[in-house]
Amino acid sequence: MSQRQMRSKKVAFLGLMLALILVLVWIERLLPPLPLLPPNVKLGLSNIVVMFSLFFVGKREAVTLVVLKAVFNMLMRGPIGGLLSLSGGLLSVLAIILVAWVSKNKASYIVLGITGAIFHNAGQLIAFCILMQNWQLFLFYSPILLIAGTILGTVTGTLLKVILPALQRAHLEFGGLGKRE
Length: 181
Fold this sequence. Notes:
The protein has helices at residues 3-30, 46-56, 59-77, 79-102, 109-132, 136-173. 80% of the residues lie in helices and 0% in strands.
């Protein structure tokens, strides 16, 4: 297969992954608020796709998906929504990369899901505190978001493990565009 064909397949696959992310974001918005958690705390289902892309396609592609998701959020929820999505998504991906590297890719999907969720919450909270110029919010919400990130990261890590075979089949249909790094 030529480089051009491989590149075209990668772009098509990433388009498919972005579409899946956007569908998952839409589904999350339809769900009722999660009990006992602050308003606007979501499951983070789209992070499953980002984690899959990170492990099986590549770091650059996962970051690209995070940025494109943030652009979508900016278009749908405004610049603050886009900024919060970008700050949470980028910090989450960087933290997952770091934990995977430190563990020599031996960390479970649940551990990586928890890491991603906690750092996604932290990135959004830091950006929000900067925007509001109020660091007391950080002190108040950090413990709540740490607990929420642990619970919801366990859910997303478990879901990734469960749907991994389907995602891998789709990945192989596109010629296996990368491998777990």
